[in-house]
Design a protein that fits this description.
Layout lengths: L2 H8 L1 E4 L5 H12 L10 E3 L2 H4 L4 H4 L2 H10 L4 E10 L7 E4 L4 E3 L9 E6 L2 E5 L2 H6 L1 E6 L10 E3 L20 E2 L7 E4 L5 E3 L8 E9 L17
Antiparallel strand pairs: 1-11, 2-3, 3-13, 4-12, 5-7, 6-7, 8-11, 8-13, 9-10, 9-12
Length: 228
């Protein structure tokens, strides 16, 4: 079964060695210049490439661009977030789906609900077809396993649309270990969570979302980068 088919059926797939050792070291060095304000908190940079446009060539290497195009050809980047779960972090993330997108402006488009103002514009829950179209690629800067906050997922839970937790069986959850330089591809409607760090190792991830759909009625993605 090819990668795209597997992503569609189970909602995720893990790929090793998408980035080389030196490429990951360059990304680690870049983010080492940006320190979390509190070493025990989850640190996030949203609107990543809007705030750090010089990061683009470090992320969109020849190898990653080729990989991205094999998974999501002709898809544009619509969201970038950097997550750093530092050593000693007590944060955990409860079971959830990613059901919002980032847009520049607010309007009254039917089916777009739960608007929240953000520094980059607005967060909003769109019509289901837009969520189903998105592909998320998570670039891992560190070895990630159950001890330092690897994602736990419920296979095929993305196929049910937007659901409540009680509608899925969390006993079917599996942990997605990802090597440094690896990429986890997933659908945003996949039910997922992560546990507290239980050993002294960091977990840094670049969370990138891609879509090939234009938004309706004058709405625009907050980030929209077409890097082919």
């Amino acid at each position: 079964m090819n990668a795209t088919r597997l992503l569609d059926t189970q909602g995720f797939e893990v790929f090793d060695k998408v980035f080389g050792v030196e490429e990951i070291r360059s990304l680690q060095t870049y983010f080492d210049r940006i320190n979390a304000p509190d070493g025990k908190n989850l640190f996030a940079i949203r609107n990543l490439f809007g705030n750090h446009p010089d990061l683009l060539p470090l992320v969109f290497t020849e190898g990653f661009t080729r990989f991205k195009n094999s998974i999501a050809p002709e898809y544009s980047l619509i969201k970038g977030v950097y997550f750093d779960k530092p050593e000693g972090s007590n944060w955990f993330v409860a079971w959830h789906q990613d059901i919002t997108i980032s847009v520049t402006d607010k309007n009254t488009t039917e089916g777009f609900i739960n608007w929240l103002p953000k520094e980059y514009g607005y967060s909003v829950q769109p019509q289901l077809e837009y969520l189903e179209n998105i592909v998320t690629l998570r670039i891992h800067l560190d070895e990630t396993n159950e001890n330092n906050g690897a994602l736990r997922v419920i296979p095929n839970s993305h196929s049910k649309g937007v659901v409540r937790l009680e509608e899925v069986n969390t006993e079917e959850a599996i942990t997605c270990n990802v090597s440094s330089g690896g990429v986890m591809a997933m659908k945003p409607l996949l039910m997922h969570s992560s546990r507290r760090i239980t050993e002294g190792s960091r977990r840094r991830v670049l969370h990138l979302e891609f879509s090939n759909k234009n938004l309706p009625h004058g709405l625009h993605w907050a980030e929209n980068i077409d890097w082919q």
